[in-house]
Known about the structure:
- The structure is a homodimer.
- Chain A is mainly α.
- Helices cover 74% and strands 1% of the residues of chain A.
- Chain A has 16 helices and two strands.
- Chain A has helices spanning 7-20, 28-39, 45-56, 65-86, 97-100, 103-121, 129-154, 161-186, 194-218, 221-224, 230-233, 239-247, 250-261, 266-278, 281-302, 307-321, and strands at residues 90-91, 94-95.
- A two-stranded antiparallel ribbon of chain A has the order 1-2.
- Chain A is globular and about 60 Å long.
- In chain A, 46% of the residues are buried.
- At the A-B interface, helix 4, helix 6 and helix 7 of A face helix 4, helix 6 and helix 7 of B.
Amino acid sequence: MSAIQSFPQLQETVARLFQSENFLQQPAELYAPIDYTLQLGGKRIRPVMLLASCQLFNGDIAKAYDSAVGIEVFHNFTLLHDDLMDHSPLRRGVETVYRKWDENTAILSGDAMLIMAYQYLCRKPSNRLHDIISTFNNMANEVMMGQQYDMNFESRDDVTVEEYLDMIYLKTAALFNGALRIGALIADAEESQLLPLHTFGRHLGLAFQIQDDLLDTFGNVTTFGKKPGQDIRDNKKTMLLITAIHKASPSQLDELQHWMAAPESDEKVEAVRAIYNSLHIAEDMEQHIASHYQQASQALESINAPDANKQPMQDLMQHLLHRSH
Amino acid sequence: MSAIQSFPQLQETVARLFQSENFLQQPAELYAPIDYTLQLGGKRIRPVMLLASCQLFNGDIAKAYDSAVGIEVFHNFTLLHDDLMDHSPLRRGVETVYRKWDENTAILSGDAMLIMAYQYLCRKPSNRLHDIISTFNNMANEVMMGQQYDMNFESRDDVTVEEYLDMIYLKTAALFNGALRIGALIADAEESQLLPLHTFGRHLGLAFQIQDDLLDTFGNVTTFGKKPGQDIRDNKKTMLLITAIHKASPSQLDELQHWMAAPESDEKVEAVRAIYNSLHIAEDMEQHIASHYQQASQALESINAPDANKQPMQDLMQHLLHRSH
């Protein structure tokens, strides 16, 4: 067993992994957009999470490097296709692939990225390969389902908080859970530890996504990397909107519904934000986020592992809690 | 060992596999297009090939059922995304997914299909799982590369026969070879048999694709299932066009180049077809096809397996040789 890596060390390890990988192959038309996407950086929180989970259970994180890259490649594949489907012009402050190249490039390069994720995951034989790939398959499938529910909700006015939480579980928390479980499988963690680990990932993912929704509406373009207010433009049924609909007075509800029926505009974003402000929606969201972080924290405490092994995961949580993008 | 299934019996087995599978899950918006695509039928030649390869090496084909479904799901995923990228309105005589639903549905359902292919492939643990998934990964990646080269060639005038053959190897023969190799791995075939099997799949795939190009230009809409002439409309660098450019007189070359620069129209299709006819391009293609079938046949003969086990594969070849779609 090598020494436990701290959270910043794990971040550094993951950064080095990506620097040493060569994603550029032939034909360049297929791989240049993949390399562009993967070298843009981003938080790389999922591969760090996978490694942190592996060392939580005393695993050798070097054995988890390929899977860590694979999970980040998968995540970036979803962003690449999502940006095309949402027609988002910017990601991490630069042009998205479908804008920099074209739609067909975004489709095919995205497909190749999904296959590449599986290539990283299966680079080396492992006696846990079946479990690892099954976990990855379930996770990937859940992310697709979450994306579909998210799209379905755009044209519905009656989305409940429960439905919203189920959707963001699939869209966001499932990927956290996939990363955590794969890290634990590589470390040969005991079966009994996988349930509290799942509870941890679930609450961490929910907190993360509610925070994401909050940042999308109230974030700052410089730190957030894209223009805020897109969820309002798209009538996304976020926790903010669902809560606002519940709390609104009859006249505020009329106003909200007026704006939801209106085409997208800066005025619409400003008006909906003003309603959110008068209803103290941001404060409500902060409470939800804090509550999920606390539940995640409790689940992590209940896992049977040395405190020193848990520290990097706790620091990862703190890092996510204080993020601005 | 159960008895060897004949080619029609294998077709029947594959048809029953698809009838007994339920591709419709929730959310229906995600899975209905997948079910629609997979229940349209088609030749199902790749899963039959996988099973035929398994029994070629005395394998238990029941162990290969999931992989057979997986390979067909993968193939249909590529068609779904290709139809979107090519804006093809018809497939197997009915509307393509992006036309029946919309572009985002085609993107996301296609992604979910690719994941579903991996789910079928990994349904059961196997001591050959690493080999099987690595084969599948390489194959899937080659198909993406082939698709990209095909797209690149559309805007080039100097594609050589060699480049064309490399491209269709990736686009078409790689999938045949993936199916054959996975079937052989499930049967625990000897390593030494995988090379002649690869040669067989390569020539069979090349013959199949040249035939496909021929049908695209000279096929009949009723039996072919889509409007012929699309390759001419798209300026696809098919074996027909490359051969015609080589054989054309200076005045015929001028005429060909005039039409390649022209926007797509029925007139363009007719004119290019007329040039092909005067140059006897269809006859040349028939010769290429026959030559690749013969080389495939020789490779099959050289495989160390009982004649009775080879018969279904030979019948599969004959079936492909005489197809009209």
